[in-house]
Automatic annotation (TrEMBL):
It comes from Saimiri boliviensis boliviensis (Bolivian squirrel monkey). This is Large ribosomal subunit protein uL30. Component of the large ribosomal subunit. The ribosome is a large ribonucleoprotein complex responsible for the synthesis of proteins in the cell. Binds to G-rich structures in 28S rRNA and in mRNAs. Plays a regulatory role in the translation apparatus; inhibits cell-free translation of mRNAs. One of its GO terms (cellular component) is cytosolic large ribosomal subunit. InterPro entries: Ribo_uL30_ferredoxin-like_sf, Ribosomal_uL30, Ribosomal_uL30_CS, Ribosomal_uL30_euk_arc, Ribosomal_uL30_ferredoxin-like. The keyword Ribosomal protein applies.
Length: 183
């Protein structure tokens, strides 16, 4: 009888083991339009994905994985490498300064907005985003969501999962190829 109770108490973790072994942040891209479901629309707003082909960085934790499960048919996500993060921020990076979208042209803009957190230049910003440091939230909120182009060669199947040959869902390290096609 005690063995049965022990089995019932065992909880399944919300974050799969394979995700825990990977890096702690990921990039996500909205790839499909949404029409009806208000819950999915709200989660996409929380992830700052309001338009098609927008991209953001998100810290990987239990809450974000649960949100991803809700919107998985509508987004592509994975684990970007340093080169992808670097290219995104240098080419498509805009900062949120006084609620306005300002191009990141020089380090003075970053130093004025994020200097109090120890982020004074582009390289500090890229480093903070890539390693998911202590000031990831402030650095990520400073960045405006990336407005990417439609991918060269187009999308294969937006309605099916990546595992089944489509475009939606977790791409893990393959997100870097998609980012390069869209950047």
């Amino acid at each position: 009888m005690e063995g049965v109770e022990e089995k019932k108490k065992k909880k399944v973790p919300a974050v799969p083991e394979t995700l825990k072994k990977k890096r702690r942040n990921f990039a996500e891209l909205k790839i499909k339009r949404l029409r009806k479901n208000p819950k999915v629309r709200k989660v996409l707003q929380l992830l700052r994905l309001r338009q098609i082909f927008n991209g953001t960085f998100v810290k990987l934790n239990k809450a974000s994985v649960n949100m991803l499960r809700i919107v998985e048919p509508y987004i592509a996500w994975g684990y970007p490498n340093l080169k992808s993060v670097n290219e995104l921020i240098y080419k498509r990076g805009y900062g949120k300064i006084k609620k306005k979208r300002i191009a990141l042209t020089d380090n003075a803009l970053i130093a004025r907005s994020l200097g109090k957190y120890g982020i004074i230049c582009m390289e500090d910003l890229i480093h903070e985003i890539y390693i998911v440091g202590k000031r990831f939230k402030e650095a990520n909120n400073f960045l405006w969501p990336f407005k990417l182009s439609s991918p060269r060669g187009g999308m294969k199947k937006k309605t099916t999962h990546f595992v089944e040959g489509g475009d939606a869902g977790n791409r893990e390290d393959q997100i870097n190829r998609l980012i390069r096609r869209m950047n």
